[in-house]
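From the pipeline queue, job 12 of 40. The input is one protein chain; the requested action is below.

Action: predict structure.
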Amino acid sequence: MGTTPEIPAPIPAPIPAPTPALASSTTALSGADYARETGALLARIEAAADRWLQEDVIDIDTARTGGLLELSFPDGSKIIVNTQPPLQEVWLAARAGGFHYRWSGGAWRDTRDGSEFLAALSQHASAQAGRPLRF
C-alpha cells in the first residue's frame, strides 16, 4: 500500500489589528465648548467658500440656518453640514453618503473609520466641484 503524501495546512492570512472604537477615545465637550467648536467649524467652511468666490476659483453658494450649513455647487449638487448638539456630533451629507463625526483628540473624527472631518469634506467637495478644494 502506498502512503499518501502529507499536504501542508494552508497558512492563515494575518488578522488585521482591530481599529479602536472611537467612542472609547472621544472627549466629551461641555455645551459651551461644543457650541464654540462647531461655530468655528461652520465659520471656517463659509470663509473658504467666500474666499474661493473672491479669488474666482469656484462659486459655491452657502446658506446657514442655526447649526445647518448648506453648500450648493455649480452642478446643482449639495453638501449639508449639520450640528447635532444632543449627540455632540457633526453630520456631513454629500453625494457619496452620510457621515457622523465626534470630537476626539482635538478634531472632528468619523465615528466609523476615524477620518478627520475637514479632510473628508475637502474630498467630497472636490469630487462634487470637479476640481481640488481644501478646507
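Job complete. The chain has a mean pLDDT of 87.
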